[in-house]
Amino acid sequence: MRRREFITLLGGAAAWPLASRAQQPTMPVIGYLSSRSPHDTSHLVAAFRRGLAENGYVEGQNVTIEYRWALGQYDRLPALALELVRQPAAVIVTTGGEPAALAAKAATSTIPIAFLIGGDPTKIGLAASYSRPGGNATGMNILTATLEPKRLGLLRELVPQAATIGLLLNPNFPPAESQLRDAQEAARALGLRIHALRANTDGELAAAFETIAQQGIAALAVAADPFFDTRRDKLVALAARHVVPTMYHFREFAAAGGLVSYGVDSLETYRQVGVYAGRILKGSKPADLPVLQPTKFEFVINLKTAKALGLEVPPGLSAHADEVIE
After folding, report:
1. Are residues 253 and 282 in the same domain?
2. Are 201 and 57 part of one and the same domain?
3. C-alpha angle with apex 249: 242 to 211, nearest 5 degrees?
4. pLDDT digits over 20-35, tens only?
């Protein structure tokens, strides 16, 4: 073989792996945009991945997930959403309520969006209807923003002597005012007064509990809000320090030492949004995937915390609990 022919053959062989690699398909990218933090949602992200796996997608094997966390600071979400659009993401999953979903919707009208929100998507422009969303977004309304009256009623049963109940709201959360109106309406029906407390920083959270102590407010309901989710341990510690019976919106609060919670099965909702993300990657259109609503709710009482607060839990109430932590 002539030297020139040998060099040509060798050069061609060296190029084969490069050509082979160039022909391999790139893994699709899921943009994961959350108002919350990785610390308070690690178990929920695992449930999301399980939903993806049901459609054959495994992170790092045949799909890439780019995570963006706002850490309870909603003003960070628009820039984070634009980062995912520029990836470009094949689908954007939003968790942590309306702020993340609205930021993604504002960033793109073409990339599919699968959302988890706590209110009605038809009222905020995310979907035309539940059965036919019609645009580039679909997902699940997990009803957290509409369960405030139910939580208030359960808290009243735990603290029947309470004439006034505090309601902790985040003024930066879009549904905050509707949460307050719903709670006030429910309170009137129960013969209660609502004392609204607003906080969107750690300092304001501490100040809200000081106000509760100074004014002798007998119990507190924490409104459903992603910022409060990122401050779960802090809220539970403040309630214990000030000896305030407190109602929360997710089981994780009661498991962390909070008195009581009532809300959706969070693991199931995150699994479901993972299923939707997988279906979209396989070719389903958000416009044709109906917006879902949960059917399972969890009422959890922490008896150890009740004892520390000097509360006697009515037997009928504990009998209705889905979980009693002792």
Report:
1. no
2. no
3. 30
4. 444 445 899 999 999 9
Compute the distance between CA of residue 166 and CA of residue 256 in angstroms, rounded to an integer.
Answer: 21
* Cα distance between residue 108 and residue 206, in whole Å: 38
CA quadruple 188, 190, 196, 199: dihedral sign: negative
- Residue labelled with tokens 């995912």: 84
Give the domain range for residue 126.
29-143+266-295
Tokens 């000030």 belong to: 242
Are 255 and 128 members of one domain?
no
Q: pLDDT, tens digit, for every residue of 255-284?
A: 999 999 999 999 999 999 999 999 999 999
Write the pLDDT tens digit of every residue in 164-194: 999 999 999 988 999 999 999 999 999 999 9
With contact defined as beta carbons under 8 Å apart, do 205 and 231 qualify? yes
The pTM assigned to this predicted structure is 0.89
CATH code of the domain covering residue 167 = 3.40.50.2300
- Please give the tally of structural domains in the chain: 2
The two tokens of residue 196 are 């609204």
Q: Are residues 151 and 136 in the same domain?
A: no
Q: What is the dihedral angle through the alpha carbons of 9, 11, 14, 20, rounded to the nearest 10 degrees?
A: -80
Beta strands in 203-256 (DSSP E): 219-222, 246-248
